[in-house]
Amino acid sequence: IRYTQSNVHDFAWFADKTFKVLKGQVDLANSKRRVTSWVMFTPRNEIFWKDAIEYVNDATYYYSLWNGDYPYNNVTAVDGTISAGGGMEYPNITVIGNASSAHELEVVIVHEVGHNWFYGQLGTNERVHGWMDEGMNTLNEIRYVQTKYPDNTALSDMVLGGKFHFNDLNHHDLADLSYRTIAGMGEDQPIETHSVEFSQINYGVIMYQKTGLVFFYLKDYLGEDLFDECMKM
Question: Of the candidates 53, 104, 138, 187, which lies 20 to 30 Å from 204 by C-alpha distance?
Answer without folding.
Answer: 53
